[in-house]
UniProtKB/TrEMBL annotation:
<feature type="domain" description="CENP-V/GFA">
    <location>
        <begin position="4"/>
        <end position="114"/>
    </location>
</feature>
<keyword id="KW-0862">Zinc</keyword>
<comment type="similarity">
    <text>Belongs to the Gfa family.</text>
</comment>
<dbReference type="InterPro" id="IPR006913">
    <property type="entry name" value="CENP-V/GFA"/>
</dbReference>
<dbReference type="InterPro" id="IPR011057">
    <property type="entry name" value="Mss4-like_sf"/>
</dbReference>
<dbReference type="GO" id="GO:0016846">
    <property type="term" value="F:carbon-sulfur lyase activity"/>
</dbReference>
<dbReference type="GO" id="GO:0046872">
    <property type="term" value="F:metal ion binding"/>
</dbReference>
<keyword id="KW-0456">Lyase</keyword>
<dbReference type="Pfam" id="PF04828">
    <property type="entry name" value="GFA"/>
</dbReference>
<keyword id="KW-0479">Metal-binding</keyword>
<protein>
    <submittedName>
        <fullName>GFA family protein</fullName>
    </submittedName>
</protein>
């Protein structure tokens, strides 16, 4: 089974996940743009179990449709490493793809909140487009 480790910029906070991602996507919602400081967030969801090491600061955000997301970031360098959705029964975790530092990581299969995608952002062929959150 494949094991991957993602870490914050300073290496203090890490998450170790197992297996292939359940999903890989990009989100263009304004909250993700503000949270990442970029024009979208690239995320990969993984099934439990996963192991976190280091100290994390948390930020709880309520999404447009009422879902509650608990974001974890490094209190030292500020990197946003992973988040969970409180109402998801499978207890999966979404990890920021860039924190794996792996240019060969699988490409996104979904584009969420595409209605807010910057016009100059081009997506890979075959990506499923969702105008808003499909949940």
């Amino acid at each position: 089974m494949t094991t991957r480790t993602a870490s914050c910029g300073c290496g203090q906070l890490r998450i170790k996940v197992n297996g292939a991602p359940l999903a890989v996507g990009v989100c263009h919602c304004f909250a993700c743009q503000q949270r990442t400081g970029s024009v979208f967030a690239a995320l990969a969801a993984f099934a439990p179990p996963y192991a976190v090491s280091g100290k994390a600061q948390e930020y709880l955000r309520t999404g447009d449709q009422g879902a509650r997301f608990r974001f974890r970031f490094c209190p030292v360098c500020g990197s946003n490493l992973f988040h969970t959705e409180e109402s998801v029964a499978d207890n999966s975790v979404a990890v920021a793809v860039g924190c794996f530092s792996d240019p060969s990581f699988p490409p996104p299969r979904d584009s969420i909140y595409d209605c807010r995608r910057h016009t100059w952002v081009t997506l890979p062929a075959g990506v499923t487009i969702h105008a808003r959150d499909p949940a």
